[in-house]
Amino acid sequence: MDAKVLIPKAGMGITEGTISKWLKVEGEPVAAGEPIVEIETAKAIEQVVAPITGVLAKILLDEGQTAAIYTEIAIIVEAS
Description:
about 0% helix; mainly beta; elongated; 4-stranded antiparallel sheet; about 80 residues; about 50% strand; CATH 2.40.50.100
């Protein structure tokens, strides 16, 4: 099963986030709960963790790009 990685809601009044730094690259294995990307908002920098164990199959937004909260930024494919 695939999992979507989304820009999380970081607090009241926060409507968007910017990809600050990818901690993993496409094709790299990830473990559930492992930080994979840093998102910067107006109030903080937050690490987003992998929701499942698998492979970071596709990065949809590059570093420096900004998007609304809950925007899909990556896809993780479950390890078989």
